[in-house]
Every structure is written in C-alpha cells, then in structure tokens.
Specification:
Two copies of one chain form a homodimer.
Chain A lengths: L2 E2 L26 H4 L15 H11 L5 E2 L2 H8 L13 E2 L4 H14 L3 E4 L16 E4 L6 E4 L5 E5 L4 H10 L16 H6 L7 H4 L2 H4 E7 L5 E3 L14 H4 L8 E8 L6 E9 L2 H14 L4 E8 H11 L12 E9 L2 H17 L5 E4 L3 H12 L1 H4 L5 E8 L7 H12 L12 E9 L4 E8 L4 H7 L2 H8 L24 H14 L12
Parallel strand pairs in A: 1-14, 3-5, 4-5
Antiparallel strand pairs in A: 2-3, 6-7, 7-10, 8-9, 8-10, 11-13, 11-14, 12-13, 12-16, 15-17, 16-17
C-alpha cells in the first residue's frame, strides 16, 4: 500500500545563485587560464576604451545602465556553478529594444565582442565571457507586454523572470509551457535562446512548437520582429526558429510571444521506489499508455542522488521505509480530480501488483506536492556539496540511458578516484537523474575539486560513449563554452558546415558570443 | 436532449484528385497565360534538351523514372482544384536520396529549374510548375525506414502517403501527429515542406515541435541529414526548421523523422447546431477549460457550407431537426472511455442548459464517428460543385474570425455577383469553416467559373481585411503561387528581406520552385 506523505519536508526550493556565491571563500579560476591551451583571445576584436564607454552612456542615458566596478562585475563574469570566470570590464543594461539595437550596431561597427546574458543560470558557461567581451544583460527588459485571455498568447520582454511569467499566467488560468529548477532566476528570453527543456516537456512539447514569435536584434542592429504571429502562420520561412537554441550567437532576443496552455485544475504527484532500471523503463511505458493525456512529468533519480539530496537539505528521504536503487517521480495534471485520482491510483496499484514498484507515496495536498518537486529540483545543487560538479546533459535511447552512469562510475573506480564518504578521493560519485519521458539523462559527477585529471578521465570518454549509442551530447543545456569542441560527437560534417555558414551569414564579424557554440 | 445519430451517412470520405479529373470536359487554362501580367519565364533558366534527358536516364536507370508523354504529364502539371496548369515536359521519379542529389546537382550546374512534388494535393499551386520547370516527384520514395516502439519515433521516406503512415502506426498503438482531409493522397514529406496543420493541431501541436529530424537535398546536391536526432538535442542551430514550411524553395525533403504520440484508446465526436458565431466562441472557451486534456479537435462550419455538402454528398444533414447558422464538431480523445464520456456529456448538458447549443448528436460507434468526420472533410470538395472555388486560409483573432466571411459576402452582394441557386450569377456563395481551436478560418468562395472580375472583387480586399486585424494570409496552406505577391500583408519588410537573403544563401541560382513563395 502507498503510505501518505507526512508533511516533513521543509520548503526546500533551490535558490540558485545565492548559496553558491560565497565569493570571499575561494575565487573561481579564469576560464582563459584554465583552458589556455584551447582558446585565445581573437585579436580582431577591439579592446574597450574610454570613448566606447562614453558612447554607451549616451545610448543608455542612465548611470545604472553601465556596470564597471570589479566587485559588481563578478556576478556577471562568473557562472553559478563557479566553474567559469570571464574578464569583462563592462556590463550594459539596456531598457529597450532600440537601445539593444544601438549597442549592437556600435559593437559591430567597432568590432567589440559581446555576450548576451539572461538570468545567468546556464550550465555550460554560455552566458559568461571568456575574455573581455562586453556583457549585455537583459535584466532591464522585464515587462509583460500583453496577454490574450482567449488565445492564451503571452507577449513579454526577454528579461522577464520565468517564475514571474508563470505567476502572472496562473492568475489568468494559464500556465507557462516550460518549468525548470532555476525558474526563480532564469529569463524567458534565455530559456528561448537556449531552447530550455525542463520538467514538463513531456506534456507541453518543445519551445520550437510553443514559441509563436520573437523580437530579436541582429549584430548589425536590425530589429527582427515576428511578435504579431498567431497560432498558425505559413507565410515564408520560420526565421524565429533559428534563434531558438542559438545561445546568443546570431543576435539578442528582446521579446517573446508564446502560446500558453490552460492551467490544469488538478495536479497529482507520486514518488516511487523501484529496484532496477529495467523497472523504471517498464513503469514509464505503462504510464504513457495508461496515464496518457494526464501524464505531465516522469522523472527518475538514482539512489546516490537521493543520499546527496538528503544531506544537502538535512532531512530524511520522503520514502522512509527503505533505500531503493531508483526512484520515480510521476506528475499528472488534468481537469477532473476524481478521474485523475482514479487513473493514477489504478495505475499505481497495477504496478505494485506486477512487482514493478516496491513502495511509494502520493502527495496529499499542495504543500506535499511542492515539497516532492522541491526534493527533485534540489538534486543539481545537492550535487555540488562536495565542492563542485561536472555536469553532462545527454539524450540517449531509453534502454541505454542509465548505462552511461554505470560506465562512468566504473571508469572512475578504475582510476581510484571515487569515495562517497572518503574525503581523500577527488570524486564523490557519478549520479544520474533526469527526464526519462524525454530520453534525457543528467549525469552529474559530484567532485571535491575541479581538476584536469578528473576531466581527462571523463572526457572524451563520456562523449565517445554517447556517440556510440547515437545519442546527443546536449539534450537541453546547450553547447556554450563547455561543449564547443564536442559538437562533432553528435552532428555530422555537413550539419556543422551548414551551421558555420549560417553563423557567418548573420554575424560576419563574429562578435556575438565568441569562443563558444560552434 | 441529444439525439443519437442514425447510421445514415454513406461512407463519404473525400477522394481528392479523382472526382475533379474529368480532363475531357474542359482544359485548365495555363497559369502562364492566366497570370501573364504577373509572371514571365526567367530567361536565365536553361531549356530542357535531349542531352539532359539522357543524363537523367543514366541517373535513374529505369524507363519508368522519366515521364514525358503529354497525357501522363497532365496529372503532374495540373493541381486538383483545376486552377493552375504548368507546361513541364518532364517528370522525374527518383527512388533514392542519392538519385535526388545527382538530379539536383545536375540541374543546379545546368540552371534547369525544378518543382518538387509530393501528392499534388496543395491548395496554392505550390507543387505545380508555372512554365517548363522539371517536376521531381517523390512518389517513388515511399518506404517506412524504422519505427521505435518505446520512443514512438517514426523514420520514413518523404513520399510515404500520410494515411499509410498512420495505418502502420495504428498497428503499433501510435498515431501520426497530423491528420487532414487529403490524407489518402498527400505525402509526409509534402506535409512537412508545407508545414501542414490539419485537424488535430489543437492537440498535437505544429510540425515544428514534432518533427525531430529531416533528410533533405540542397540545390547543389549536398545531402543534409539530421535523421538520428532524439527527442531532445541542443547541439547547434536547428537547421531542419528552415525546411519545415519552405515549400520546396530551399531543397527537397527526402526523409522525415517524427515523434508520434500514443494512439488514444477512446474517441468521441459530437456535432452541434448553434445560433450565432458568438455562441461558437463561448462553446470553444468552455470546451478548452472543461474538456481540456481530452479535447483533440474543435471545428466550426457555417450553414451554407452544410447546404453545399448535403448537395454534394446527396444526403440529409446529420442534424435533421432544423437548419442552424453554425455547426460545431468536437472531438475528444483519451485513455478511459467512462471518464471521457462523462466529461463530454457533462459539458454538452451544460452548454445546452446555458442556451449556447440548440441541438446536437454524439456518434455512437466507429462508423458514425467516421461519417461525422467525413461530413466535415467533404466541405472542400463540396465547395467546388458550382465549378470552382477561391480558397483563402487565414489566421485571425477568434473574435474576428467569421467577420471576414460576412465582409466578403457583403462585398460580393454589392457587386451583384452572388446567387446560391441563381445560375446566372458567377458566385454561389462565400462560405466559412475551419479550425476554431487554432484561430484558423477557411474562407471558400464557391464560384461557377474562375474569372478576373471575381478575383478583382476578392483581392486585395480579403488580404487588406486580414491585415487590418493583424491576421495571417496563410495559416496552413502556404504561399505557393497564389500568395507570392501578398506576403507583405502579413510579414514586415525586415522579415521579407531576411527571407530573401536566406533563399539566396541556399539557392543562389534560384532553381528551386521559382515564381513562387517569396
């Protein structure tokens, strides 16, 4: 039988950026130094001078629009995992699309390299500079432009925080078709620029389907605007698609028009303990069939990820009865509580009867539901409690998904690097969790330090393993700085050539987010 | 109370192409002559000669791969509405991607213009030549390449007929995420090339979300292949998106990889009679909220469209009690019959109680369900029974959707052109129907002849009306030949310039489907 979740979990929503930012402790090494053999500054780019600063001042007309103080710059130069640090001397905070246009036009004319930055919650160093690129923060462009209650179309600035967008929609009976752990910090524009996937892609599909229009500024200052698009529009090439997932390499997204679904009236969340990865797969196949239209998330987590999360949150596991090698989080959402409860309970009873599920709990109220999600969403942060984390975000055929975690742990054990509780070893453990429903695994190698030695054990091994299974080396996190040189493991030569041609077509001077992507 | 549908409808699935092809009766005027003031042959294109034919023979290695006989060519030169007729002297039927590549490379080198053609079911003359372009038919590339029962990913040749794809998927418990009236003839590749929308977009979203990978041949013969993509892949620009909806203007799609959802276990279809367009909107807003996750189609049809359909099918209307100005077809699909029935019945009872719905029927078995859909799908063909039809496929804000039909009828009455039963008038009536759920109206002006005079009353009036409401002049049919000159009513100058740049980037010689699109 399923036990009811006692209201034991404290509100444990991960607050990205805050916890990790104890700057005094130890400074993050400069990306340019850590990767000095891989990357060098492009001498074609101009170095920022006093005249440039004056010009930007005249564009922004606001003393708070330019950030130049070293301490203030740190927040923008570093990523939240404390893995990358750039050396930008200038952050610009435009407040209008026209200002973004004037800035880019000037940078393009002067060959000043730039990095667009949203909420700075990226996981591949994509939104941090490598050398002295100017950071263009979208934080000042954060308004809701309009919402249509009949069509469900939301139009907003790129810098709107995802959670703010969703809270606004909730008041109108709608939901943002994307949800992810960093929602309290990340920007809608950043989500689109990185084609974020997140927790409910299973139900709402990818942003390539739900984004209806964009406003974006090209490197030469041209403002591309397709914000008026309706749900269906077959008049010419769907240019906005190029910006979705382009990680700031073609231009800067300044506005987003997106189709939002009706907010489900009922949510259910269950957390299950299972004995094998095979059982995880079987439960998934069954859930997709039996829960079908109400299945909105299907997440899995391995046992070690749970131990780390418990230590991080300093609370017991929601399922106290025993430790299981795998856990599954299922969310359903629909319009009729009675129907949804019946579907979920019947399904869970069947899976237990078939011996696929060993134990589990169903959230009994909103707080319990939020706490179960918070538990799941705390894993990324919990992975860093040893000191750091190497993150791999991969797509693999379902049957091979967990094999990668096992292979990496074997490899690390061979190298005598792993000690879950042995502080003398550099690696805590490789853990696995993610969106089974999308074939998307997050492999987090929790470490006590970042080091070349660990990196050499992991790479290119991880990428070669993925390639051998015809997977993708980036399911949803993107390429950024981390994976720039590894795209060949997933894309073929023709694809890469066509991408490079396209980059040159739109950004002939290469000023947009250089040293990254392709 | 809802009456049960008696099994009166004969199987009335529209068979495109067949009925309209009474060639002996009256020949379709040549597009080049009808539109002689708008278009002239590009003298840069080479004219086909004997050496070219020999070269193509050597590529295809099959005497049936080349069609040159005038009667045989007619099927490919004409569209099914009998509105456009090209003058191609050659149809090529490659059987492999490599053959397509060799053909295009040769054509590009020789500057021979080409038109890719799928099932030739298009509605804007996009797949028929205007002058002597070589037609490349994908009909010979029609195999299923693979299907993964766990992921639901189907990989197939572009020339696979949509209905064949869906029948195959049905055997495996899956459904193709697209359905439209022409499914018995249209090709999957053509659907993708035109970004077809169809009947269930409301539930399954657009092809931009569900297509995972493509194989396409660029004008210079380069084979672009992203068929290995999994559900999530953020490694670089999503190039395949450019081909979705590009109508053969950038290259030829030869393979499609698409994510298919589980086939719902229960379908319900209801047909309702309502008294006003306002009621249609209210029923829709209610359905989206109350039927929510099981609502898979919401179609509306006006009264006159029903009269034409009845005459065409030679049967009574499924709702016999009275004639209504508007009808709604609702489809639900889900995993639990009892739950779905309860949701639909409760919803319909409420709408009748509120006075929104006057009468209606629910299909009681599979045959009735199919017949109701067949009734809806027969409207396009029924629109042509007077002799021809001017078709407009538009996106509009929901509140303005039917206003366009009213405005057009007013305009035609002013010009003294309309007579539903008066054969002396050139126009039968402007009728409206379509996918309310997607804000997509089909305005069909049923006529007794195609004439410049009618066209001048309709255009640019229709396009200007749409522009004034910020709608799209093509929701799902595409631009093709019909709307080439009207894209400016929906897209702005920057968008059009960027599109033209992109066309030049990929097709510098302009051989791909010339005289159309942009």
């Amino acid at each position: 039988m399923f036990r009811t979740l006692q209201n034991r979990l404290v509100s444990a929503k991960p607050v990205f950026l805050a916890a990790q930012r104890g700057y005094a402790v130890k400074s993050v090494p400069l990306t340019a130094e850590t990767y000095s053999t891989k990357v060098s500054r492009n001498p074609n780019f101009k170095k920022l001078d006093e005249q440039d600063l004056q010009h930007f001042s005249s564009i922004l007309q606001d003393p708070h629009g330019l950030i130049t103080g070293e301490d203030d710059l740190l927040f923008y130069n570093e990523d939240w995992m404390r893995k990358y640090r750039g050396q930008s001397q200038l952050v610009l905070k435009p407040k209008s699309t026209e200002q973004v246009s004037s800035i880019l036009k000037y940078c393009n004319d002067q060959k000043l390299a730039v990095v667009p930055q949203g909420g700075n919650t990226g996981l591949v160093g994509g939104s941090n500079p490598v050398f002295d690129e100017i950071i263009i923060s979208l934080a000042g462009l954060n308004k809701i432009r309009s919402f249509n209650e009949v069509s469900g179309i939301l139009k907003c600035d790129a810098g709107l925080i995802l959670e703010n967008a969703d809270n606004y929609l909730a008041e109108h009976g709608y939901i943002f078709p994307l949800d992810l752990g960093a929602k309290g910090s990340c920007h809608v524009g950043g989500n689109v620029a990185t084609n974020a996937g997140g927790l409910r892609l299973l139900k709402y599909g990818s942003l390539h389907g739900s984004v209806l229009g964009l406003e974006a500024v090209l490197p030469d200052g041209t403002i591309y605007n397709s914000m008026e698009s309706l749900r269906k529009d077959n008049t010419g090439y769907d240019l906005k698609q190029l910006f979705i997932g382009s990680e700031g390499s073609l231009g800067i997204i300044t506005g987003v028009s997106i189709l939002c679904p009706s907010r489900p009236q009922v949510f259910n969340v269950a957390l299950l303990g299972v004995s094998s990865y095979e059982a995880v797969q079987k439960v998934f196949v069954g859930a997709r069939k039996e829960l079908s239209e109400i299945l909105s998330a299907f997440e899995f987590m391995d046992g070690k990820s749970q131990l780390l999360t418990g230590r991080h949150l300093k609370i017991d596991h929601p399922i106290e009865s025993a430790e299981y090698p795998f856990y599954i989080l299922i969310e359903t959402s629909g319009s009729n509580k009675e129907h949804d409860d019946e579907k979920l309970e019947t399904f869970l009873a069947n899976t237990m009867e078939e011996g696929l599920v060993d134990d589990g709990i169903i959230a009994q109220d909103e707080t319990q539901l939020k706490n179960l999600w918070a538990w799941r969403e705390s894993i990324p942060e919990a992975s860093t409690i040893g000191g750091g984390v190497y993150k791999y975000d991969v797509s693999l055929p379902l049957k091979d998904l967990y094999g990668l975690v096992e292979a990496v742990n074997e490899k690390l054990v061979e190298a005598d690097m792993v000690g879950f509780d042995d502080e003398s070893k550099p690696v805590v453990e490789a853990i696995g969790y993610g969106h089974v429903g999308d074939g998307n695994l997050h492999l987090n190698v929790a470490v006590r330090e970042y080091s070349k030695t660990i990196e050499q054990v992991l790479e290119p091994f991880v990428y070669e393993w993925i390639q051998s299974k015809k997977g993708s080396i980036s399911a949803e996190h993107g390429l950024g700085f981390q994976k720039k040189n590894y795209i060949g493991y997933t894309k073929n030569d023709v694809e890469i050539k066509l991408m490079k041609d396209l980059k040159k077509h739109y950004d002939p001077n290469g000023i947009m987010n250089p040293y990254k992507y392709i």
